Amino acid sequence: MTDTQSTTGVVRLSDRQPTVTGPEMLASLVPPPQFDGATFDSYRADESYPSQEEAKETLLRFAGRGAPVKKASFFSRPKKEPAVKPGVYLDGGFGVGKTHLLASIYHAMPARRKYFGSFIEYTALVGALGYKNTVDLLRGADLLCIDEFELDDPGDTMVMTRLLGELVTSGTKLAATSNTPPNALGEGRFAAQDFLREIHQMSDSFQTMRIDGVDFRQRAIDGHSIVLSDEDYASAIATASESGLVSDDAFDEVVAHLARVHPSRYIRLIDGLRLVGLRDVRVLTDQSEALRFVAFVDRVYDAQIPIAATGVSLDQVFAEEMLGGGYRKKYLRAISRLNALTHSSRA
User: Fold this and answer.
1) Which end of the chain is less crowded, N or C, counting CB atoms within 10 A of the terminal residue's CB?
2) Do residues 142 and 31 make contact, with C-beta atoms less than 8 angstroms apart?
3) Burial level of 333, CB count in 10 A (0-12/13-18/19+)?
4) SS3 114
5) Strand 173-178 relative to strand 143-149: parallel, antiparallel, unpaired?
6) Are 179 and 91 in contact (CB under 8 A)?
7) What's the CA angle centered on 243, arms 241 and 245, to 5 degrees?
8) Angle made by CA atoms 103, 104, 109, in degrees to the nearest 5
9) Are 161 and 305 in contact (CB under 8 A)?
10) pLDDT (tens digit, 9 = 90+) per residue, 240-269?
11) What is the H or E stretch that residue 331 is in?
12) Closest to 280 (Cα-Cα) out of 258, 254, 313, 250
C-alpha cells in the first residue's frame, strides 16, 4: 500500500515526493510534540545547581512574565533592573533542560508571531526559499527560538548571523541554545565565548546564561541501538501497520532518496507515520550522505516516531573517521537519538 492519505498500512519513503510552501514551513516552526506542554512551572530546577533557578528567573523576565518590580518607598530609591537584551543564549551541558526552557519562553511570551525551530530547520528554510524571501517571511516576528545553534559550518553560521541581525533591527527577540552532544567525552558544552566569537557581529545583542547540572537522561554514548532479525522486523512492520501507517524501505533506498529531497521537506517524508522501518542498514562513509541522514534523524526524533531496523546497528552507522572529524558533535547527537528511537519501538 502506498497511499499516503491512508491511516493504516505500509508505505515506502522512497515513493513519497513531498512538497511544502513557505507559509507551510513557517507553520511547522513550533516546539516538538514532547515540549507541547513545557512551561516554566514544569521546569524542575535542581537545588544543587543554583544556576538553573537563576536562569529560569531571568528567562521569565525576558518572556515578559517576571515578578513586578517593587515600587520605591518615600525614603528609598527603586531597584534598578538590568537592561533586557533582545537575545538570550543558554549555555549548558546536555540534558540540563535547555530545550525545555527554550520552549517555555515560546509558550510564555504573549506574541502575535513567534517561531521555534532547530538551527538546521532555519538554514533549510533559507536554502529552500532563498535569503531575501526568508527575511521577508520572518520580518516582524516577535520571537525566534533557535535550538541547537551549530557552529561547525562557517557558511551556515554566517548566513544565520546575518539573518538574525536583520530581524533584531526590526524588533524581533531571539533565544538560542547550542548543539551540545550527549556524553561526548568531555565535550559537554559549547562555551559561551565560542558562540559569541562566531556571531561576533551579533554578540552584543545576546545575554549568555550558564546552566549547570547533571544529564537527567543519563544516556551513555556507548549504548547500542536495537537490531532486529528479518523475522522480527517483518512482524514489527505487520503488527504496527494494523493500527497505523508505517514505512518499510531498504536503507540504501532511503539514503538515495534523501539526496533528491530538500532537507526542508524531510518532515513531510514522515508525515502520518507511527513507525519507520529500515532494512539492511550499512555503515555510511560519504559525508554528504551522513549529514543528510543526521537531518532526517532529527526530524524523526522531533516527531518521536520509533525506528525498527535490520543490518548494522544504527549506533554504528557513521564511519569511525567521521566520529573524529569536524561534524563529530552532530553524529554523536544522532547516535543518541537513534538509540532512543530503536528502543522506543519495543515499548
Assistant:
1) C
2) no
3) buried
4) strand
5) parallel
6) no
7) 50
8) 105
9) no
10) 999 999 999 999 999 999 999 988 889 889
11) helix 328-344
12) 250
* Helix count and strand count (H, E) for the chain: 13, 9
Rounded distance between C-alpha atoms, residue 124 and residue 130, angstroms: 9
Closest CA to 317 of 344, 287, 337, 290: 290
Q: Which residues is 91 bridged to in the sheet?
A: 210
The model's pTM: 0.75
pLDDT at res. 185: 32
Listing from the earlier edge strand, what are the strands of the sheet with 173-178?
Answer: 114-118, 143-149, 173-178, 87-92, 206-211
Residue 169 to residue 149: CA distance in whole angstroms: 20
Q: Are 334 and 299 in contact (CB under 8 A)?
A: no
User: What's the grid cell of residue 256?
Assistant: 538515495
- Any idea how long the chain is? 347
Q: Which residue has the cell 513567534?
A: 114
